Amino acid sequence: MQAVTFLAPYRVACAEVAEPRLELPTDVVVQMELAAICGSDLHVYRGVEVGLDAGTTLGHEFLGRVIAVGAAVQRVRVGDRVVAPFSVHCGACFFCQRGLTSRCEQSQLFGWVAQGRGLQGAQAERVRVPLADSSLAPLPVGVPDAVALLAGDVLGTGFLAAEHAGVQRGDTVAVLGLGPIGLCAVLGARDLGAGAVFAIDSVPERLELAARYGAVPIDRSAQDAVAAVRARTGGRGADVVIEAVGHPDASVLAWQVARCGGVISAPGVHNEPQFALTPGQLYDKNLCYRAGRAPVGAAMPRLLARLQRGDLDLAPLFSHRLPLAAAADGYALFDQKKARCTKVLLEPRRS
Ligand SMILES: NC(=O)c1ccc[n+]([C@@H]2O[C@H](COP(=O)([O-])OP(=O)(O)OC[C@H]3O[C@@H](n4cnc5c(N)ncnc54)[C@H](O)[C@@H]3O)[C@@H](O)[C@H]2O)c1
Ligand SMILES: [Zn+2]
Ligand SMILES: [Zn+2]
Q: CA 231, CA 237: separation in Å to the nearest integer?
């Protein structure tokens, strides 16, 4: 079958790979119908996140139809249309019982194989899904596929970033980084009743989308973002900062725009060897810093139900829809933000 494989930094290719098969009784195999490229794939693509084996199939955002089920699978059936969270979980361990499915004792991330161990990705014609009963959710009726796909990562990560920050009604919120995650964090903060939401980036079309989502856009390439937030918050800074970038410069900016006693919620994935902030910097502003892989598996059922209300304007997040065979172009466009690229959907060959 065809799959998007990682060869080396800035080199991905659609190539012929081995068919996935049922390996454990709790596995299913899904015929992929729609996948997407995530900002997390870019860390690997750019060579910033290292350790992935060359030849690994990339991708962790997908939906499709179940075509094979293992002997122990009870809830998921052949023919079901399902959406997956970006990592699988057992649903029964200490962490799953507490809703932290992203740290499940049996967690595996799609598209991460290191030294021969791990789970192949979802930018492929077919995908093996372990722990299928606890991980997969049925596609809801009435929600467009591209929008439902967002529940498995982008929407969940953005909304949970706002929830984990404890956004209260009327809070001022600054969102750093207006990729799909930051844009969903804007929507999540507004859903929780935030007051002013300041959306900071330098990419015009992303700033436009943030404004469409009700945020105050701040172009950090044209103005001093810290001064702009302070000027609108009585000189104090924002109550909550959501750092959806994953770069040390953004950690520093988050610290600068947060008010004393505020919260920094950081879904951004960091690969630098040292934390960009010092303990003293957090101490001196009495800040709470919350980071980590989002437990979207636990949140997916309620997020899919939320999507059924149909009042979240998520379709504009997608700028490109390409065949799997053109995935390399999709990575380059998304990486360089060319052609107003905000998010790329990938479709398998049509037969
Ligand atoms: N925690 C999780 O579970 C989880 C899940 C998915 C994605 N992520 C991470 O979230 C981050 C965002 O993902 P995405 O898909 O939106 O990526 P993206 O690359 O599309 O967006 C990043 C945005 O940040 C902007 N940016 C860069 N430096 C900045 C700075 N110093 N200040 C403000 N903005 C800056 C860029 O212009 C870009 O628009 C990535 O680090 C990704 O790995 C985390
Ligand atoms: Zn993702
Ligand atoms: Zn578990």
A: 8
Q: Is 194 helix (H, G, I), strand (E, B) or coil?
A: coil
Q: What is the mean pLDDT of residues 113-142?
A: 97
- Which of 344, 293, 304, 346 minimizes the C-alpha distance to 88? 293
* Integer angstrom CA distances of residue 27 from 69, 76, 88, 198, 293: 6, 10, 11, 43, 23
What is the C-alpha separation between 20 and 303, in angstroms, rounded? 29
Mean model confidence pLDDT for the chain: 97
Q: Which tens digit of pLDDT belongs to each residue from 294-326? A: 999 999 999 999 999 999 999 999 999 999 999
The model's confidence at residue 293, banded by pLDDT at 50, 70 and 90, is: very high
Q: Kindly report, residue by residue over 141-166, the tens digit of the pLDDT.
A: 999 999 999 999 999 999 999 999 99
All structural domains of the chain, each given as residue ranges with its CATH number in brackets, are 2-153+295-347 (3.90.180.10), 158-291 (3.40.50.720)
What are the distances in angstroms from CA 344 to CA 86, 129, 269, 320, 339? Answer: 16, 22, 19, 5, 11
Instruction: Using the Cα atoms of residue 79, residue 80, residue 83 and residue 85 in order, give the sign of their dihedral.
Output: negative
Q: Which residues line ligand 1 (CB under 6 A)?
A: 38-40, 42-43, 153, 157, 176-182, 200-203, 206, 220, 244-247, 249-250, 253, 267-269, 293-294
CA of 93 to the centre of ligand 3 (A): 4
Ligand 1 pocket mutation pick from 112, 269, 331 by most atoms within 8 angstroms of CB: 269
Interval between CA 194 and ligand 3 midpoint (Å): 32
Residue listed under structure tokens 């929507």: 187
Query: What pTM was estimated for this model as a whole?
Result: 0.98
* Ligand 1 centroid to residue 40 C-alpha, Å: 8
* Rg of the chain over all Cα atoms, to the nearest angstrom: 20
User: In the prediction, which pLDDT does 169 show?
Assistant: 98
123 in Cβ contact with 37 (< 8 Å): yes
